[in-house]
Design goal:
two-stranded antiparallel sheet, globular, mainly alpha, 2 strands
Length: 139
């Protein structure tokens, strides 16, 4: 999951965003996903970080990550997809839906922050949030 912006957009964004509007969630490409036997799961907040290429299932490791989920569902193409064939697609879709929900909740918090302060720099956060939503293929 990444966000594509040209240099002009990135510079303008970072110059205009007020730190009061920053929100952080424990969700990235190396975020660890834990599956329980009863069909429940947890996402993060820990991560394999830069060790994704040695720890992630997609690359022959033993840790399920959000990157593995996205690739197993066909939303990205990288690594050794055949190593993910044993995973339950229905459960992975639930994990993916939760990932999207986490992003959407963060976006909603930013919207509430804008409504309460009226600061115009918020519109750049909204711009970035929409880019993230498109990257996660949220309709």
């Amino acid at each position: 999951m990444y966000m594509a912006m040209d240099q002009r957009e990135a510079n303008l964004f970072f110059q205009m965003v007020n730190h009061y509007y920053e929100r952080s969630i424990g969700l990235g490409g190396g975020t660890v996903v834990r599956l329980d036997e009863d069909g429940e799961f947890t996402i993060g907040p820990d991560s394999v970080g830069h060790r994704l290429y040695e720890k992630g299932l997609l690359f022959g490791g033993d840790t399920l990550t959000t990157t593995d989920v996205v690739v197993a569902l066909g939303k990205a193409n990288l690594g050794h997809v055949e190593q993910l064939k044993h995973l339950d697609k229905v459960l992975l879709q639930r994990v993916y839906d939760k990932m999207v929900e986490m992003v959407e909740e963060t976006i909603d918090k930013m919207k509430k922050c804008r409504a309460s302060t009226g600061n115009s720099s918020w519109r750049w956060k909204y711009f970035i949030a929409n880019r993230i939503k498109r990257g996660f293929r949220v309709s």
